[in-house]
Amino acid sequence: MNIPIITIDGPSASGKGTIAEKVAARLGFHVLDSGALYRLTALHALRQGVDLSDEAALAALAAELPAEFRAGEVWLGGEQVTQAIRAEAVGEGASRVAALPAVREALLARQRAYAQAPGLVADGRDMGTVVFPAAQTKVFLTASPEARAARRHKQLIEKGNPANLADLVRDMRARDARDAQRAVAPLKPAPDALVLDSTAMNIDQVVEAVLEGHRASRG
Ligand code: DC
Q: Could you give the count of Cα atoms lying within 13 Å of 134 in the half-sphere of its Cβ?
């Protein structure tokens, strides 16, 4: 039972999701978008009217999350929520629920169950530090807040959503500070992580760097 695992951790909008999908496709591995589980927990709580500071109630929701990932779509209790979980308000809620230890604990077993042959690419904040500390290849993907805000701005505008670059830079810094300073599973590179700064790299260059890191870790 030695399933190869590649963890990709890093701040919001560092491109982790895109890189994880592409690396997984190249290797034929499964993919875990752990941030989606925190977003689903927040969305479920908002819809059920559960207070985002009620730790016990949120942990119970997280443990029973009726969520499914199917062919690039995300479902919650029979409803397709692929777009809904990407809303800024849901991301904001996810950042709050993710700071609660009981919620993180409730999602742990579910995340580990994704480690299936022939391998897994897992992206998030604590994949290499907490969820899969024995992963073969660990990557910490970062980029300047300005570069990340500019990428998010472009995505929003392309989808026809209003977006203000200065607001996005400010929100990005605030979210980074909260994710890095929280007491449980704070955002930080694992000591054995390959740190990649993608500010001046394109997607293909980052994918190649991750695959190269994975080849090197297999010896
Ligand atoms: O990567 P994302 O933006 O979808 O993550 C949403 C929120 O969930 C973000 O504020 C950080 C949190 N998160 C976390 O605490 N641990 C993870 N492994 C993944 C996400």
A: 6
**For residues 3 and 208, what is the distance between their CA atoms, to the nearest angstrom?**
21
DSSP state at residue 182? -
Pocket of ligand 1 contains residue 124 by CB under 6 Å:
yes
Task: Please report, as a single letter, which amino acid is at residue 188.
Answer: K
Residue 30 beta carbon below 6 angstroms from any ligand 1 atom: no
10 Å CB burial of residue 19 (0-12, 13-18, 19+) is buried
d(CA 95, CA 35): 9
* CA atoms of 213 and 33, how far apart (whole Å): 20
Residue-wise pLDDT for 121-134, tens only, equals 999 999 999 999 99
- Residue in this structure with the two tokens 């890095």, named with its chain if needed: 180
Instruction: Report the amino acid identity of residue 178.
Output: R
Residues in a beta bridge with 55: none
pLDDT, position 218:
79
pLDDT in tens, 164-211: 999 999 988 988 888 888 888 888 899 999 999 999 999 999 999 999
Is there an atom of ligand 1 within 6 Å of 39 CB? Answer: yes
What CATH number matches the domain at 5-217, 1.10.3210.10, 3.40.50.300, 3.90.940.20, 3.40.920.10? 3.40.50.300
